Task: structure prediction
Amino acid sequence: MTEEIFTRELERRAEREYGGVHGAPLSFEDVRGTAQGIRRRRRAAAAGAVAAAVAVAILVPTVLTGGSNRSQGPDPAPAPPTAPGASVLHDGVVTRPDGGTVPVDVSNENVVNYGVLTDGRVVVATQKPNAVRVFAPDGSLQATYPVQTNVVTMSADDSVAAWVDEKYRTAVLRSGVAEPVTMDGPPSPGGESPGSIDAVLDAEHLLVGDFNTTTGTVTPAGRTDLTTSRPLRVTDVSPDGDLWAVQYADDSDPQYGCAGLYDPAAGELVARSCETAGLTFSPDGKHLLGGFYENNMAGEVAVFDRSLQPVGRFESSGRGDVVSRAAWADATHVLVSGTDWTTSTWSLTRVGLAWDDRQVVVPEGPGGNPEQVAEFILSE
Result:
């Protein structure tokens, strides 16, 4: 995979957990964390901080604070009927929403992204090696798959993981199935580089594109073109599949474009907002999470209803407090990895839809440079 395509795909993932397909492009050095400062965007000086001290504490799995015995692997969790929310990768251990832990032989600075299948396997996209690695529910390494694009895309219910393999094919790994199956790959931009897997509708229907626009559907029968009312990039699909969260170019925001909700059956946008980017659906599909991310951090992250009206919002105070990662903890809570980029201190917090009811998961403590590493990586 070329440096340009690798960089563009990391920008795309930084939009999902993570923020804006039309953002200023990162250099390869930015991807590696050598940027020297987070650029201030709109409302970056507004009040509010995720990593600020909070009054309510909840029980913390000891693994997140470094106190667990990693030699003891948990029993696999039973497959839930809907997406369970984000797991947390920290210090070589994945902590699932049910509190179970899985030791995995990866370091955060080497992880592009990852997902946890409903059968308990952990599917990790890594940079060294440039591969997708699959870990068993007990944390043992099951397989390593060379790739063209080292990014994993998960289905809404976490029953399917997909990636672009070394032969430019779409690889699909289903929960409960030992090996991935392959289908036609995404379109190749310029005919030389791998395309992108934008969304997994189910194990036999995937939305694919060229990193800028979602242009087709891949099924076992092959790849077909996708027709939409305007060029757009799908960032997520609702649990019931009825709506797509999208990003599209718009003159009202030349840098990021605008976000919207697209009804594929009607072929039209049913909601739009130029005040966010990279929308993802809550597990029940009733709310969305979006934010503007630059240099591996975000100064603004918000929860929206399905009309894309804001319900709750984090805005940096401008003193260094930013969000490293944010993802759905469950249908009514967001898990937030907050950091102060001036001091490299970190915390993990659980907040309500209105960005209230803050509960400390991991208290503030030292960590790495947030431009170079995410101390808490949240699953897809």
